[in-house]
Specification:
Blueprint (H helix, E strand, L loop, with lengths): L5 H9 L12 E7 L12 E5 L6 E4 L1 E4 L5 H4 L7 E12 L2 E14 L4 H5 L4 E7 L3 E5 L5 E4 L1 E3 L10 H10 L7 E7 L2 E10 L20 E6 L5 E7 L15 E8 L4 E8 L6
Parallel strand pairs: 4-6, 10-12
Antiparallel strand pairs: 1-2, 1-5, 2-3, 5-6, 6-12, 7-8, 7-11, 8-9, 11-12, 13-14, 15-16
Helix pairs in contact: 1-4
């Protein structure tokens, strides 16, 4: 059973900034090893399948990743928990046709609880909101108008839903998050989100280095890109001593916050950059 989420509340504040869906010129793929081992090159060592099309597998001889992509982070999970975006190129080496995949963007499954992981299924979409919910089937022009988007993450401990809303709805493709799910009675029932592993996608703006007077401490806030900004100086006060606990696959982040300089806890996916 999926709940209506904070997404609905956030829409009121954010839909003016939402980008048009639009399809980009590249292709979304599932990438996995072919199982072929060679002692010479070129070797058909990879297989790619277009997202939402399991009918055709394409052999790839080499993969080139953008400099910003950390391959270790991408491949430390099962291949069915990743997606990539890029282009296939072809050339001949002698009489052999050789394919190379140029990967420009890479995505990982936003960690799910065990019961939600077991329910993960469906097609892959790009979602947006501009007075109406819309979803585009990846690698196609199929645009659907929806009544709502439901997802399982709202109950996860201290997950930053403003950040997640921004990644799923507001951010432009192809850096935006990917939605996996099914359409049921006009509702996109998301069973999983796939997050771009380069997050934030742009460098955070520098935070001003302002010293606080004696007896005061600096406090901070986070924007929708998880970037930390100093918001002022406060006199420290009593804080609740309990510490938040994150779901598996998430790391606990703590920043001193107004009004008393007490820690504000957030649980970020373990694979994104620590800020």
């Amino acid at each position: 059973m999926f709940k209506q989420t904070l997404f609905i509340a956030l829409v009121v504040c954010a839909f003016m900034a939402s980008s048009a869906l639009g399809q980009t010129d590249g292709t979304y793929f599932n990438l996995r090893p072919s199982g072929v081992v060679c002692i010479t090159t070129p070797c058909p060592s990879w297989t790619v399948t277009r997202a939402n099309d399991n009918t055709e597998n394409t052999t790839v001889h080499s993969v080139s990743f953008a400099a910003s992509i950390n391959e270790s982070i991408l491949f430390e999970v099962e291949y069915d928990q990743t997606l990539v975006y890029g282009y296939l190129t072809m050339r001949y080496v002698g009489t052999q046709l050789v394919r190379q995949l140029i990967v420009e963007q890479a995505y990982r499954l936003l960690p799910l609880r065990a019961e939600d992981q077991a329910a993960r299924a469906g097609s892959f979409y790009s979602a947006s909101f501009d007075n109406l919910w819309r979803a585009t089937l990846l690698n196609s022009d199929a645009l659907l108008t929806l009544d709502a988007l439901h997802e399982p993450y709202s109950s996860y401990s201290h997950l930053d839903m403003e950040w997640l809303f921004n990644k799923v709805v507001t951010t432009a493709a192809p850096t935006k998050a990917i939605v996996q799910g099914t359409i049921q009675h006009g509702v996109l029932v998301a069973t999983a989100f796939y997050i771009n592993i380069v997050d934030p996608s742009q460098r955070c703006p520098p935070s001003p280095l302002i010293g606080c007077a004696t007896g005061y401490t600096a406090v901070y806030s986070r924007d929708v890109n998880r970037c930390r900004q100093m918001t002022g100086c406060v006199r420290p006060g009593p804080c609740i001593l309990s510490i938040a606990v994150c779901d598996e696959g998430y790391d606990l982040i703590s920043i001193p916050s107004a009004p008393r300089g007490c820690p504000k806890f957030t649980c970020d996916p373990s694979f994104v950059k620590k800020l």
